[in-house]
Amino acid sequence: MATQNENIFLNSSGYTVNPDLEAERKTASFNIELLTNILDGGAENTRMRRAVNAVIESDPEFNIQNEYFQSQSEKYENSVRRSVHLRKKMEEMGWSKNGPELVYCYRAVYNALAFNVHRVFINCILGLGSDEQIAKWVPLAEKYYIAGTYAQTELGHGTYLRGLETTAAFDATTQEFILNTPSISAMKWWPGDLGQTATHAVVFAQLYLKGKCYGMHPFMVQIRSLRDHSPAPGVTVGDIGPKMSFNNVDNGFLSLKNVRVPRENMLSRFSQVLPNGQYVKKGSEKINYLTMMVIRAGMLPTEVIPTLMKACTIAIRYSVVRRQSELKPGDQEAKILDYQTQQEKLLPQLATAYGLHFAYNYVHNIFQKAYADTKEGKFDLLPELHALLSGIKVIATDYCSAGVEVCRRACGGHGYSLLSGLPTLYNRLVASCTYEGENTVLLLQTARFLIKCIRMAHDGHPLPSSVAYLSSKTSEKCKAQEKRDFLNPSVYIEAYRHRALRNVRSTAVKLQALIQSGVAQYEAWNRCSVQLAHAAVDHIHYIVVEKFVHALEDLETEAAIQRILKHLCDLFALHGIFSNTGGFVQDGYLSQEQVDMVTESYLDLLTIIRKHAVPLVDAFDFTDTNLNSALGSYDGQAYQRLYEWAKKSPTNHQGNRVFNTYLKPLFQNALSKL
Amino acid sequence: MATQNENIFLNSSGYTVNPDLEAERKTASFNIELLTNILDGGAENTRMRRAVNAVIESDPEFNIQNEYFQSQSEKYENSVRRSVHLRKKMEEMGWSKNGPELVYCYRAVYNALAFNVHRVFINCILGLGSDEQIAKWVPLAEKYYIAGTYAQTELGHGTYLRGLETTAAFDATTQEFILNTPSISAMKWWPGDLGQTATHAVVFAQLYLKGKCYGMHPFMVQIRSLRDHSPAPGVTVGDIGPKMSFNNVDNGFLSLKNVRVPRENMLSRFSQVLPNGQYVKKGSEKINYLTMMVIRAGMLPTEVIPTLMKACTIAIRYSVVRRQSELKPGDQEAKILDYQTQQEKLLPQLATAYGLHFAYNYVHNIFQKAYADTKEGKFDLLPELHALLSGIKVIATDYCSAGVEVCRRACGGHGYSLLSGLPTLYNRLVASCTYEGENTVLLLQTARFLIKCIRMAHDGHPLPSSVAYLSSKTSEKCKAQEKRDFLNPSVYIEAYRHRALRNVRSTAVKLQALIQSGVAQYEAWNRCSVQLAHAAVDHIHYIVVEKFVHALEDLETEAAIQRILKHLCDLFALHGIFSNTGGFVQDGYLSQEQVDMVTESYLDLLTIIRKHAVPLVDAFDFTDTNLNSALGSYDGQAYQRLYEWAKKSPTNHQGNRVFNTYLKPLFQNALSKL
């Protein structure tokens, strides 16, 4: 930055709270701390979360304030440094690697760590390895004496595992597997930690025994030297380059040419190759299936939902600090949150963040039950759980990504600055719509389960609890008489149930009709797939609304909090109807008059919740460091921070090279003329 | 990148066309070159565009291949270098600075140039300056002897010009204006070219004469030395730091403390301050109002619509090259474009790109007429034109941004790599929803015009042509009997007209009722603003559908092209109904049976257009260099390019520092154990 006489508007620290923001906090109708405790699952969790966060924030090694100025390589280096330091810190603090503190550590610095897939690598060995393999590899990995990655996805192959091309052929003479990447599309591509870090990889490859393919199996492969990090013989490995975000992670590529590993390196909990080349299957992999679900479920409370909560915090605080235009003629410029259009952008996102938080708790509980069952060898809940988790992963990642972007755009030009924090939140979060199961693929898996349930119901079989309604009758008409009826949860739950039931059923009918008309099953499925995906969304949306309502019933002892959350729940439900009226009216379930009632109730709720908006985001309890946003800090001094942070930008510390090289030769022509 | 034995899958150039892509081109039902000519507005334009593009592409100075690897500072430096070079190149080629070649230059390298606001600076002087001021400043700026910017937006103030705080007080004793930035929120913030380049700025400030405020006026202020680029006395200036994109542009901040400029530096075409401090108003600024509209309109064909066209080109080509999962059991993996869900993502975006292209042509024609009128002192068309342009700017930027992101996500994981080109297209384009008029603000301006028209119609006054339908009766029911009736443009145009008319009218009724019930006008407006914004969208969507249909009528002599564009037009219209059924069914205009017909017709169209998808994107005629995408090149060798480009990433040329510093000390512990 070039400056002749430094501005004197600012103290570099110790801002007082912006009075426009302070005023918002004075009107809180509920105890913010109590709501924070509820969100944390208890006051003790809040205490521990804050303690961990304080440790992290007070350690300069974890400082991420300059991340918006860093190149991909700088981000990577800092993440490696922090990850190595975190391991030490955890030992020092006595935090267990599977304990609650780790979750809170991740909440504080997750976006700025490396070695994330290293943990998947460890879990993979624990899940797929024999006891000997676990004993050999896991301790080395836990201590970071080796760095691992999980190499499954290939350049030309993702979701469809049978399509993977990498091969592992057994050579009985040397008792080795020979791994090969037979084509460019077979290169491993995308694994995290592979690009510049990993020394080892669990490589998934088609197992060949005497020329016969036995399908995908996992192999432990050393890919780089522990001594000098050079690639192992036959290995080509590198970084896949810059991404939309996640540039702290070194996603990589890997190509293998006649790479030999000993027979013991096939992870063999579920199947094994004997020295003579015989294939032996051992036990069910169903339990392992659950492990994949753990990852898919774990994303939501750690990465997905909190990201929307952060975006809401930033955008709502900024919207009471930013003043723009006259609302009432002659008044000072109005807080932008007082405009109905701004409320309609932000408050439904706030309701969504709360709704998904509570709906996830429900899924988590089913999940715990299924996990307990599985340990006893019962796998009955798995199909339902898979359909539910797939669906809620889609809804959560889709709604949260879209919501973050709505928040970002609602901050106008300043939301476009990286210093607002919002572009990074969006660019990172939107990846979750693709990883851990591409959303359209997952929706169709949920739909497949729903169609199966419709058929079961048709044949008189009982249905699992989350889909039991599929065997009920559709209601004809909504019974609401006036707009306040739409604040009755049973009214809107019924509307969502009706929509889901009608859509799942009518799509099942279409599918059946196509098949009966002679269309091949696969073709009929494809021709219904747009509608199947919609039906799955409607089903999950219904579940989320219903579980949000149920969660509130547990809060009876906290009337003030229950009241405000009830408003949010109503808003979440009515926003869904207001924004997708078609599904509720096309068969006459809602009349035009009822749509008008929904609209009026919905708009009324905006005014109500607007008053509590700041306390409701304060309850998420993100520190300024967590948010890392010039717009969203607790003190509301958005303009001062934007200016302070901008001054630190490297673009202001470049010297005069561009001027001297390109501009001076031109500008000097004007000297004589001005 | 670390590599032991280099892969041999690749030649570094001269790929043959991927047979999966080649096959798509063989089925083209129309002459692609002819469609390209139509899009260009004639074969001669196509020829000139290609000639200009070829000149740019053959000049290594304009090479942008490495842009995905560059830091903000590198991007800026390269953009300055290219811009200076482009000026030379244009002289060398004899291309006029206002000629058609410049448009084609921008198409080729726009995203990688600096000095873009410099042109706004020049236009501002031409529009607001006196003849003497134009004669003094414009030649200097045209030759780049000075670099200018347009400093209007402030840190705390955007849309609402009356809220701007910068002051300019006249000092009659020295015949100077004294400019000041009275608070931090008054700093100029965001102007392009200001951060590191500009020597001069047109600064908008509240004019004070003898203590009385005369409102916003433009002042020419030198902000940096031409000799050494240091800030002028009293000036604080710098770069606002990293953004979501546009990092080639040095958006800046500017603070002024008692900066004095001579009286002659107030741009004085429309008003002047005499030596005695007297204020003199001269003529109407309405013509200047049109200049702002020129900028807003100019974005669409140069930046907004082509960006969606590029994204469609990349995603559709990739979708016939990418194979994933079995569609028909036992077959090879299917091209992902053969999945209905993929078609439903991409093909409506393709239809939108074509639809907006043709609808823009209509707006452009009205615009030309208004411009001619204005020169004759007639301003009658301006309010209509303003409402139309505001609305179409919103629709185009919203739909194109959303569409680009749909295309990006439809490319799965690889769409997340910067090398796909897609993240950059989105991150850049989405800014257009905010700049040149924030979209919600613009929608409400369009709505204000519509409400005024409803009142005029009510009072029996005639309405301008684009809104004449607001005085017609609403039709009761859609007359379609079977699904193919929805391929009749008059049927869907009527449906869109009905929706717009009902929504504009019902919102006007609500507004009026609120006011009559005693709610203050400003408050009533705010309480209707969500619905007003929706009504404005419905109005503009109707216009776009109608103008798309009309554009096709001009293509009667080209039957094959007319036929395929008719399919796209149908798809655009039916996609809008399918995705927003509510607006069409809530008052019973469409019955449930008709909604089902729309759905079936819509899904049928996907199958039809899928066959022509590649020829339809080829017709956009982007070169590989224009696209700069590893996924979307003409030859369809997506995987090879991803690999070739990734190898060039700086992350693969960092040496062993991170390993030696952080990892080696850990890994050496494993040496004895493995």
From TrEMBL, chains A, B:
Q: Which residues form the Acyl-CoA oxidase C-alpha1 domain?
A: 289-451
Gene Ontology biological process terms in this record = bile acid biosynthetic process; fatty acid beta-oxidation using acyl-CoA oxidase; lipid homeostasis; very long-chain fatty acid metabolic process
Kindly identify the residues recorded as the active site. Answer: 436 (proton acceptor)
Q: What does the UniProt keyword field contain?
A: FAD, Fatty acid metabolism, Flavoprotein, Lipid metabolism, Oxidoreductase, Peroxisome, Phosphoprotein
Tell me the compartments it is located in. Peroxisome
What GO CC terms are in its UniProt record?
cytosol; peroxisome
Report the superkingdom from the record.
Eukaryota
So where does FAD get bound?
153, 192
Q: Where is the Acyl-coenzyme A oxidase N-terminal domain?
A: 31-146
Which InterPro entries is this protein grouped with?
ACOX_C_alpha1, Acyl-CoA_ox_N, Acyl-CoA_Oxase/DH_mid-dom_sf, Acyl-CoA_oxidase, Acyl-CoA_oxidase_C, AcylCo_DH-like_C, AcylCoA_DH/ox_N_sf, AcylCoA_DH/oxidase_NM_dom_sf
Q: Where is the Acyl-CoA oxidase C-terminal domain?
A: 488-667
Q: Name one GO molecular function term.
A: FAD binding
| Cofactor(s) for this UniProt protein | FAD
Give the matching PANTHER family. ELECTRON TRANSPORT OXIDOREDUCTASE, PEROXISOMAL ACYL-COENZYME A OXIDASE 2
- What family is this protein classified in? Belongs to the acyl-CoA oxidase family.
Protein name per UniProt: Acyl-coenzyme A oxidase
